Amino acid sequence: MDCCLRPTSWSRHGYGLETGNRSIDFSGVNSNRAVCFSFVRNGFVRYALQVHEAYWKVSNDGLSRTFAVVCDNGKVGQEEKTAVIVGAGPAGSLLALLLAKQDWKVDVFESKHWSDGSWAPGQPDGWNVMLGARAAYCLEHVGLKDDVWSEGVFCSGRTVVAGGGLKPKYQPYGYELLAIPQPKLASVLINSGMHKYPERISYHFGWGLKSLDPDESVAEFSPAGEPLGLAGRDNIVVTADLVVGADGLHSKTRAELERNIFSFKTTLKVVPAGRHIKLRVPVDVVGEQVDEKGNVHGPSMLVVARNAKLMWGVPNRDGTMGLTIQGIRGSTAADVSLEMQESFPELSDFFGADGDASARLAVSPERFQGTVTATSYNYKQTVLLGDAAHSLLNVTHLGAGLALEDCLVLDRLLQSSLENQDHSIVECIAIALSNFSNERVPEMVAAAQLCTDVSRTNMFQVELQRAILRVVTRFLPRIQHWQKAANTQVVSVQQLVKWRSREILIVRIALVFAFVLLLLRAIRLVRLALRVVLPLANFLPN
């Protein structure tokens, strides 16, 4: 059997390659058919050779490369698979765990800083995400559902206040969602990776993607927001079998793919989402509450619309509430305090003219929600996940669950492709990424359209539809509200779109039926009136 040596990033069989001051020198084949070689570049070589397989691990400047024997039929021997993940958010952190579980060597790069098991102080507050059955299913695959669920707060509905002087109205979901800050969700996954796979996952905090060569799967990282004492660090250049962009809405990985690949095009539509602040609130706000009918319920999401301003409030387990406020224009604490007292007097005690909350909200940057659409999520060995690939408007609580689901789908397709040894590892990964894109793009197109349609539906329409469906489901109990199904079952988004269309059709038919009944009733009343009026006309003088 003829075999040759190659690094995992080469796409063709061959040996004797020399690039720059890196070289691989061959000194022949010994009696056991083992290739003898040396690697020179301020590093060291460890090797163990057998007749049909070999492992060579080369370390250089703290980074590792693995070489393998490839046979003449193109099949890959026992070689270590490497991955670089850009972004340590929920999607990137979950994928790192899944890949490490399959014996991948994973390097995770994150621009934010980390300190003593949590995000370093001074990092921007993250969004509060709502997790349902889809997220629970994904987290169970790495045994972290209970850990995550213990860090969040269950919300069974939302409390809405619209206009001045109106009493809050509690609107139950009919199911429970877990509210948790996105950084807290990511930190649970990161800490798990550090403890379970310290030799397989390497986390590099404080490093942002500078450039990407998707044709060669080479990523360059530079220090991001250098803390004191770390200035002057050299950039890190990494080559891997798989490059994953999980770096959020404003993805640098996505931008690099568009810059380098002419045919790779995406669109990004953003809308202002307001300023975000984490505020400590009384215990009763995140505990049991009583609705307008006197019924006791658990914590709820708060929605207040008043004076052309909109506020969302999501409770946290630590006694704080994540507030996102649209329409605040003040740039000083006094201005912000005045606006809050005019629009949200319920919170005026927290936002004094010289209060800390007013000062923090005054300097808080405007945040954005966006919709990312793309015809493909991959190019060769590079792939986009989560918000980097398909950010959604936060109106259906599907975004976080779909981002985590991306990781499970990609892991499944990679395993399936790599089990097929008819191709090299590079070709197997490329095939898996192409299949991932083909499978997920239709789902995310449906999700984006669903979120857009829901965002255009006003509160009156929502309440009318719910009222009609409550009546219809009494006679047809098998019909289930699409949003309840979305958060209590793991259902295809395309199926959810069909169910929503069915519900809209049912509502329209019900409205037409009600209109016809009213019309028939009106005709009957007119006939009765005519029966009374016409005989009286005979007694009228000519």
Automatic annotation (TrEMBL):
- List the transmembrane segments: 505-523
The record places domain FAD-binding at: 82-419
Superkingdom of origin organism: Eukaryota
Would the keyword Membrane be found if you checked this record's keyword annotation? yes
Q: Which residues form a coiled coil?
A: none
Q: Name one Pfam family in it.
A: FAD_binding_3
Q: Does the keyword ATP-binding apply?
A: no
Could you tell me what this protein is called? FAD-binding domain-containing protein
Instruction: List the gene name.
Output: LOC112285606
